[in-house]
Amino acid sequence: MTRASIRASLVIIIAAIVLGGVITGLLSSYWVFLATSVLITGVALQSLGLVAGRTGMIALCQMSFAGVGAWTVGYLNIAEAPGGLATWILLGGLAAVPLGVAIGLPALRLRGINLAIITLSFAAAFDVILATMTFPGQTAFIQVPRPELFDSDEGYFAFALIFYVVIAVALEFLARSRLGASWLAVRHSERAAAAHGVSVAKAKLSAFAISAFIAGISGGLLAGYLGTLVAENFSMMQSLSLYAVAVMTGAHFAEGAIIGGLLVVMFPEILRRFDLPQDIGNVLFALGATQALSTGETMSETYRRLLRKLRLQRTADGGTSSERALPARIEHARGAALVVDKLTVRYGTVLALDSVDLTIPAGSVAGLIGPNGAGKSTFIDAVSGFLAGYEGSIMLGTTPLEGKAAHLRARTSVRRTWQTNRIAPELTVGGYLRLAAGNLSEPEVRAMLDWLDCPNPETPVVAVDAGTRRLLDVAGVVASRPAVILLDEPAAGQSHEETLRLGKRIAEIPARFGSSVLLVEHDMDLVRAACSQVTVLDFGRVIASGPPAVVLDQVPVKRAYLGIEESVAA
Ligand SMILES: Nc1ncnc2c1ncn2[C@@H]1O[C@H](COP(=O)(O)OP(=O)(O)OP(=O)(O)O)[C@@H](O)[C@H]1O
C-alpha cells in the first residue's frame, strides 16, 4: 500500500512542479490568475470526489461547506487572529466539519434521490442565510491579505498549488488505507462492506467530515484569492454545477479534479470571448454528467482504462510467492465453533428455515446442501447478521450472536462470502484483500493471492473475471482467519479442474489458518473433496446429516436434492 501511495504521490508532486514551473514561467499574470482559480476549483472538486465519487453519496451542498470556510477566514481576518492565512484556511476547513457530519447523519438512512433532496435543501437554506450576511470586513473595505511570501499572482498560484498537492497526496494515502477501501466498499455494497466488519455509519460520516474539511479549505483559498466575497460565490447553482462536473470528470482522481477545475474556469472564459451566453457551460456539464452516468465511466476512468490496457500489454505476470509467507494460523477455541439451535426464519408466509439445528466442530469443514430455495443462503444470512429477525439461537463457540449487527458479527469472528459479486471494482486486488483482512504484510498478500490462484495485488478488480472475483472474495475471508467462515457457492463460474483445486484449498483451511468452514455448494465433487460432514436442507428442514459418503447415498437426499424418483434411487 505505502509503496503504491508513495509512487502515486511522487507522480503528483513531479507533475505539479513541472506544470507549476511552465505556468508561472511562460504565461502572463492574467492566465496565472485564472490557473489559480482552476486549482481552487480543483480543491472543491477533490472534496466532492471523496463523498460522491468514492463513497457514492449524492452531495449537492459542497459550496455551502466552502462558504463556511470562506466566512471563517473573513472573521479571523477582521479579528486579526494569529497565524496568518494558511492557519485561517485550515481553521475554516475545521469549521465546516461539524456541518459535514450533520449533513452526513441523514445519509446513514437515505440514499439516491432522497439524499440529493436533503443536501440540496441544505444548500438552498444556506443561500438564504449567506444572503443576509455580508462578507466580514466588506463594508469597511478590509480585504483578506495574502501571505507576504505569496502576495503576487504567481505567488498565490504557488500557495494554492501547495494546498492542492498536499490534499491530493493525503487522499492518495487515504484511498489505499482501510478507511479508503471501506468508502469504495460502501459505495458498491453496504451489506458486503458490513460483512468485512466495516461500520457503514463510520465510513459515511468520515467521508462527509473529511469532504467538508477540504471544501472549507477551498472556500478559504478563494477568500485569499479574491480578497472579499459575495454569497453568489457559494450558491446552490454553484454546488449543482460542481456536482455535474465532478460526475463527468471523476473528481475522486487527482487528474479528474484538475480537468474539472479547467472546465469550470475556462469554459466561461471561452464563452465570454465568443460572446456566447454563459448558461451553455452548465448545459454541457449536465450532458457530460449524463454521458458518464449512462456509460458508468468518468473521463478519468476512461483515461486510466486506456493506460491500464497499455501497461497490461507490456508487463508479464509478477511471478509466484512462497506458501511459507501465508498469514499465520490463529488458534481459536476448541469444541464447537458454531452451534445453531432451532433456527426458524419466515419471509411473510414463506417458512424459509424450519427449526434447523447445525453444529460445526472446530477445525472442520462442514457442508450445507439442498435444492434451490431450500434455505441455504437464508441460513448464511441469519448467522452473519443480515436478517432483521429469526427464532432460535446462534452461538459462536459459547458466545451468543443475538443482538449483534452484521459488522460486529464479522469483527466477532464470523465471516461470509456472497453468491453475487459484491467487490468494489474501483479497488485493486491487494486493496480488497486488505479491506477484507486488515493489516497484512506485502508478502502475506501476495502469498494469499497465489494460494487461491488470484491475480497479483496491483491488478484492478475491474480487470478480473467473475469466477476469479469469487476466489478473491474467498481469499479475503480466509486471510482474516476468523473462527467461522461461511462460503456461499464459491465454485460458481469455475471450471471442473479449478473446482477440484478449490476443494483441496478449502479442505486445508482449518489446519493452515485455524478457521472452521461451512460450505454451501451445489457441486457435489467439491462437497466430497472438502467436507467431513454434510447437512441437507429441503424446504427449510434438515432431512439428513452426517459424512458425505453416507448422506449423499441416502434415498430421501437423492430424491430431494438430485431430483431422482424414489423407486429409481432405491
Ligand atoms: N427476501 C426474501 N423474501 C421472501 N422470500 C424469500 C426471500 N429470500 C428468500 N426467500 C425464499 O426463502 C426460501 C429460501 O431461499 P434461499 O435463497 O435461502 O434458498 P437457497 O437454498 O439459498 O437457494 P439457492 O440454492 O437458489 O441459492 C425460498 O423459498 C425463497 O423464495
Automatic annotation (TrEMBL):
Transmembrane segments: 30-51, 58-79, 85-108, 115-135, 155-175, 205-228, 240-267
Residue ranges of every copy of the ABC transporter domain listed in the record: 338-564
Record's keyword annotation contains Chaperone: no
SMART domains: AAA
Locations listed in the record: Cell membrane
Membrane topology field: Multi-pass membrane protein
SUPFAM superfamilies: P-loop containing nucleoside triphosphate hydrolases (SSF52540)
Chief subcellular location: membrane
Keyword terms, alphabetized: ATP-binding, Cell membrane, Membrane, Nucleotide-binding, Transmembrane, Transmembrane helix, Transport
Entries under Pfam families matching the protein: ABC_tran (PF00005), BPD_transp_2 (PF02653)
Disulfide bond listed as a keyword: no
Domain of life: Bacteria
A single GO molecular function term of this UniProt record: ATP binding
Name of the protein described by the UniProt record: ATP-binding cassette domain-containing protein
Organism: Mesorhizobium retamae
